[in-house]
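CORE FACILITY INTAKE
Project code: CF-77B
Contact: R.S. (postdoc)
Sample description: multi-component assembly, two entities in total
Requested service: structural model of the whole complex
Turnaround: standard
Below are the sequence entries exactly as provided by the requester. Do not edit them.
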Amino acid sequence: METSPARPDAERSGSPAAAGDGRGSVELQGVTKKFGTFTAVDDIDLEIGDGEFFTMLGPSGCGKTTTLRMIAGFEQPTQGEVLIDGQDVAGLPAYKRPTNTVFQNYALFPHMTLEENVAFGLKRKKVPKDEIKRRVADELERVGLSGEATRKPAQLSGGQQQRVALARALVNLPKVLLLDEPLGALDLKLRKGLQVELKKIQEEVGITFVYVTHDQEEALTMSDRIAIMNKGRIEQCAGPEEVYEKPATTFVAGFIGVSNLLPARVISGSEVAIEDGPTVSTPDAAGFTTGEELFAVVRPEKLEVSTPGQAPGDRPGIEGVVESSLFLGTATQLGVTVADGSKLTVLVPNASEEERQRLPGGGARVYLSWEPEHMHLVTESPGEDGTENFQPMQTQDQGDQTK
Amino acid sequence: MTTLRRRLVPYGLLGPGLLWLVLFFVVPMVFMGWFSLSSGSLESGWSWTWAFSNYTDAISEYSTQFGRSFLYAGAATILCLLLGYPLAYAIAFKGGRWRNLMLFAVIAPFFTTYLIRTIAWKTILADDSPVVEVLKFLQLVPQDGRVLATSAAVIAGLTYNFLPFMVLPLYASLERLDLRLLEASKDLYASARLTFLKVTLPLTAPGIVAGVLLTFIPAVGDYVNATFLGGTNQSMIGNVIQAQYLVINDYATAAALSFSLMIIIMIAVVLYIRFAGSEALMGDEEEAK
């Protein structure tokens, strides 16, 4: 899982100083950042491969932006080392680092035209005039703003400003491009379009992207790998599929989409007992010690609804009462309360009108079952409670914290 | 009915202020204009004679004082800018929770009248004052030299008195500056010095323009500093006008001098704003052109 994808060909038209020679790897070793008594980033280790689209995902205040700012050079770590391209950059100010940043609110220079904005970095690097002109024109063309070159940022829409910010950073061919919630201020439709575009551009230029966001969907769509952060720590660092299918902790499970967490106990190397529910055999159990309290995760779309007593016999399942039913367009979302009082969410795809009619309404007793392979075991996050969409289950014993 | 009333509202709001200005600005100006082209004396009365010679005579006779006024005011404005910019910068960015207290300190002198403060400077710069003793000890002033009644004393007084007028607009524009732009500049390989020259300075140019105007215009016409801190060789055009009006009672010359001063200042300001509003001051990126 630590493999980064092969770096696409970095050759670009009209850029002799192309990033081809740059190895844009980033390494954080035991990095801690404290602001007074507050620990924003707590002993983080990270390795970001050259040419990788790497995302740091987490709720606000989890330390993702601070981590990005330490790579950019706007903050110095309290402890630990930051290496870019194998070089320790400690004490190196931002303007001497081979990185460029796309800021959250773009931070375009309001007194300069688009051209001047994009040319700013190249001028400081004393690139010859003809070359600046050519590269700026190329970059503006890439982001589709050639016609607006002489306008000021205030005359552009949010989406256009975002493109200028990207062009202003990319034109310098940094070893690493840092993006701090670059799409955060845009509306949903524009965001979707730019996500695809950003990913395309990244593959085209082959520059390492370190992307910060709190939007899990954005992270899943674009990233090669995702680091999910909570309270200054990395809870899991893996590819999008793995993060989604095999979350490591309750926090990750809760943050990446809606998850159903069932308290459970490991009873052998291959079996777990779900509280007030069945005993399920799963290879996942091998990774834990017998007797360990943890949670079983089943994604809402992996739960199947049936009438109690008519359930397909060999699948594990749990009985509950339907509390709510919400039509979402492509699916119907059921809220089900199970025996121990925890609420589960079930997503039923809307195949047809007829099928929807058959769904149980409020108050109906249902049997929720799942394939054992769709159940995954997670440990409780060190930073207990997670995000808004994650409600920790009622457990009598929260004493044994894992990790 | 309602639309008519709504249309009248702006005039109602403008009315009182407009009336005030007409009464206390336009009317005296008309009188002054009349005086400036009249001849006569306080005893014999004044009559309108199209006496344009009032202007030519006044300007040629007092050209030294005109020149001195612009020189002193210019020097004081530059000093105010050099002192005020770092001060405003420090308050805006390094002030932290002391910010409001520091701003208060800047305007605190206004709680004492202008006259008293200037007279206090006279004591401070007097020949036997400790300040002058120290300056002499440091060899900044010759042993037999004096500080009072020199150009330096007048410029120092003007600088002191008008510094808040420079600091406040500068502070307002610095405080509004988006600090992320400075980070963006540093991210794009600009050192602290280049960031200041390419981003901070151009973006605070409106504050500089406002501060310069607020300092320079009243400083040119000032006569208090020259009266108390200067000698006969330091008198400014304000002193001449004051003497013409109140001592010599030559209203025609005084009015002609006032109008001339006003017109010269207006020309200077228009030229300055045209220059300041041009790309040259607003952070032209085409530096090599």
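Facility notes:
- The first strand of chain A starts at residue 26 and ends at 35.
- Residues 1-22, 385-403 of chain A have pLDDT under 50 and may be disordered.
Invoice: internal transfer
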